Amino acid sequence: MSIRLNYPQLSSEAYQSLLALSETQKNYSIDRSLIELVKIRVSQLNGCLFCLDLHIKEARTLGERELRIHHLSIWHESNLFTEKEKAALEWAELLTRFNSKGVEDAEFDKARTFFSEKELSDLTFAIGIINMWNRFGVAFRNKPGSLDKIFGVDKIGLV
């Protein structure tokens, strides 16, 4: 699979801005492992192989257990996730797969029982950012593994 067009070069200013926005996630109020689980789940929903590959590797570098990663597609039924993690995954799915009603008050209130306002704001940004990256990955077919060295995930031996 080869990339369809070099969007980082063609739209370099926008690309650099998205990279800078992505960098802000290092300062989020939510555990990085949880953010990576959310990114994996959103990438599964969107069918973005590049992002799925990258974020599984990033989760593994953070010590995430392989079985939990395998269970992400069935997180509703799995007992491997805490209620807070399930709330984050549910929020991610709600924001990735909008319905005509958007997010209902009950769904928002449920998320708020597990996350502070700051955490929910950070989580929502993380979901929005990975959804945007997924759009580029799906549209232009980024090659999985092509940025492993840059992200430092080449050392974990998952290739």
Description:
The protein is globular. It starts with 6 loop residues before the first helix and ends in an 8-residue tail after the last helix. α6 packs antiparallel against α7 and α6 crosses α8. The protein has 159 residues and is mainly alpha-helical.
Write the layout of secondary structure elements.
Blueprint: H1 7-10, H2 12-23, H3 32-46, H4 49-61, H5 66-71, H6 83-96, H7 105-114, H8 117-140, H9 148-151
Helix pairs in contact: 3-4, 3-6, 3-8, 6-7, 6-8
Based on the model shown, name its key terms.
mainly alpha, single chain, globular, 159 residues
Short description:
By secondary structure, the chain is mainly α.
Alpha-beta content class: mainly alpha
Number of strands: 0
How far is it from the N-terminal to the C-terminal residue, by CA? 16 Å
Taking pLDDT < 50 over at least 5 consecutive residues as the criterion, the unreliable ranges are none
Radius of gyration: 16 Å
Number of helical elements: 9
* Biggest beta sheet summary: none
Silhouette: globular
Mean pLDDT: 90
Helix content: 55-70%
